[in-house]
Structures are given as C-alpha cells and as structure tokens.
Amino acid sequence: MKRRIEVRALSVLLVALLASGTIVPAVSAESESRGWLDTFDQWVEPRDMSMYNPVIETPQRVPLDAERARQYPGLILLDPKRESKFQVIDADVVPVSPGNVSLTLQTESDDPGTRDLMPDVRMTQGTISWYWTQDTWAYHEITIHNYASSAASGTVIFWSLEDGYGYSVPFTNLAAGADRTITVPFQVIAQESSVGLKPIAVEIRVDPTGLTSWIARMPIDAIEKYNNDASHLLDPDGGENLETSDLYHFPFSEGYRVLSKAAQVADNTTNPYQSAYEIMQYVYGAMSYTYEEPYIEYTISDLYTMDHPSPIDGKYVGVCDEYGTLYTASTRALGIPTRFLSFTMEEVSTGNVSGHAIAESWNGNAWIHSDPTWNSFDNPQVYKTAGNTHINITVYGDADDSYYTLDPNDPTGDGILRYEDFRTQILLGEVPRYN
User: Fold this and answer.
1) Comparing C-alpha atoms, which of 252, 205, 241 is closest to residue 363?
2) Which residues are CB-contacts of 396 (< 8 A; sequence separation ≥ 6)?
3) Which residues does 305 contact at the CB level (< 8 Å), separation at least 6?
4) How many CB atoms lie within 10 A of CB 397?
5) Closest C-alpha to 297, from 417, 391, 425, 400
6) Can you give the pTM of this predicted structure?
7) CATH class of the 12-59+228-434 domain in this structure
8) How is the chain split into domains, by residue range?
9) How far is Cα 417 from Cα 401, in angstroms, rounded to an integer?
10) Which of 12, 151, 263, 387 is buried most, with the most CB atoms less than 10 Å from its CB?
11) Architecture (CATH level 2) of domain 72-225
C-alpha cells in the first residue's frame, strides 16, 4: 500500500462529500484537512487492464475519386504520382493570429527584363491557416511575383497532400515584375479527410499550357480537428469540456506543443471514439508513475508535465490525475469534448479506499470512459472487475490556479494546482455504469 497522503488545508467540498454518506475520511483528527484528498487512503496505482478493452478497428479510408470529387465544386484531385515533386521550402514562419502564420520566402533579385519569354511566376509570401475545422473553409493568402519579362496568367492551387485534393484560384495579366496576393479558399471535408497532421503545398500553373511554374510543400503542417457545432460533435455542456484553463493549454502559442503531439498521435483517425482511444494509449505509454511531491498532493498542468520529464527515462511523470490531465488536454485540442473525473472506490477484500482520476470523452452520443493510468478504454466496469465497489465520482472543471489563495506554498501561475483550484465540482455519486 502506498503511504497515506498528508493533508494541509480545508475545502468546502469535503462537507458535500461527507454529507453524501458514501465517502470514508482517511485522516486522523490531528491532521490538517486537504479536502477531497482526505477521503481516501491512497492513490490508485498504475495497471495494464487493456485485456478488457473492446476491439477497436481502424476504418480503411477510401481515396477520393473523380465521381465523389464532382460533389464539391472547385475541388481538383491530386495525381498521386506528383506528390514526390513537393519539396519543403525554407521560409521565415511568424504567427500573425490564432491559427495563422505568415511565411516569407527568399526573394529573387534578378531584373525581370533579363528573363526570357518563358512564364516564371513564384510564391514569395503567404498567410497560411493551419488550424482547420472539419466541414468549414480555410482561407490562405498567397502572394505571387512574376519574374518573367512579360505578363502572365494562370492559377494558384492550395493542396492537402494527405487528402489528395486541392482548390485553385485563377490570376490574369500579372505584369512583369509585379506582385499580387491571391486568396485561395480550401474546404475541409470531413468525409474525405481525417483529423491530425496535414502536409500542405502550393502550386502555380501558368497559361496557356498549364505548365507548373512553381511548386513546394509548406514548412509547416496544418492540423485538422473535429467540428463542434450543433450538427457535428457538439459538447453537451455548452463548450465547457473544450475549454483551455490553467490546467489545459492549447492550441496556440505555448500550447501548440500539446496540439501538435495530439495531432501526431491521432493522425489519420476519422471518428472521435478512435481518436480518443489512440490518445489514451499514447498517454499510458508516455507517462511514468511517481510517488513524489508535488504530484501526490497537487494536480499538475499539461505544460508543466511536458516541461519536467523524468531524467531517467525521459517520460512524463505524475500520478493518475496527471495522466488524466494530459489526456484531457490532448483530446480537447482536437475538438473532442472531454471531462476530467476524480473518484473514490473501496476495495472489497480489504475495505481500503483509494482515489483515482480518469476522463470521459464525448463521441456524439455518449460519454466514453477513458483511463490512461490503467490503459483502459470504454469499460467503466473495469474497477469492479479489479475488485472495487462504491465508485463515487465527481466532475472537476474550470481550473484556475489563482482561485484558491490560502496555500502559501502554491504560487499563482506555476502550473501546480490544488483540487480546490477547480471552480466547478459536480458530484455525480455512484454512477450506475461504473458500479
């Protein structure tokens, strides 16, 4: 058995939990109260319960064909044989707004008048939208320059290399030595794509032959996420389970690391159930369980966890609430509504009460159980299988590191949060599907 958790501060949550009659205090009267942490003897230890997971099949994607492509006006198909022609270019990449970056390429110094009569139109700059939402349009501003000695006409094409399609916009009478900015819309079609990383490219073709004048893969990848509007993957709690906080960071600035890793892990998945499963497995393998402070007493933010890996094996460290936090941040970043749960449960054979933290992800119809500490997915009965009863659940949301100010050892903004820093705690009690 792990050592009993030391406790230090009073929480109003304790009153509500004790009033329910289902939580057993685990500390003596001489100890100072730590709220919810006082209600159990020890944290749950890591286990591998994957043998009880349902069989999860990866749907096979069918490449977009000409017949389906006709359903989307303006869409053009990419010849798979041409994908190798898209080489990554060097460019200065600067964030300009959430989800958009500015690209500046090396400019040519040649005088247009010294060029021959062959068309020579190239991209010089661009503002690229990289955070895509399914079944919406992403808009990209591509600045082109005519390096030839005569006017040129043609098209600018924006490609999603993985999905095999793109959209084009024509330009006409671009004078020799002149620039022009072309806005190229791109439709992110859910049924013809997948979430995750999206290698993207720009191609310029010139008239009258349609010859490729310039072609390159962009130095950043786009990231595709689920759509959370009313006709797609709507959060049943009005968006609360998609929010960032002092505990969860995404998708921009310093939180881009969370999003990019989530996109890599769930790459090529096509439904939230499958995406959540892949992320659960990733967190299980990426984390190393610890019995040290501050992880035992506090909930640690995703960025703090990523910034403090183990010096021994390089894995992230924490107890079950860090596992749950990294999972929650990752799924939310991809548009999967996810709520963070903590609960107590009693071991039938000994009567010991342990505390545990997991998550549930919304698949569009139901909350799906996910436990990266136990490598368990969509099996809320796994705790009974392991010999426990009285699984008493609380939903924790809206974490604010400055909400609880009575602990002098918990400075605001350090990414180390108390359970009292959660503004909302909803006691679900002994939920039938878990008990």
Assistant:
1) 241
2) 340, 341, 342, 419, 422, 424, 425
3) 316, 317, 318, 322, 325, 326
4) 18
5) 417
6) 0.89
7) alpha beta
8) 12-59+228-434, 72-225
9) 6
10) 263
11) Sandwich (2.60)
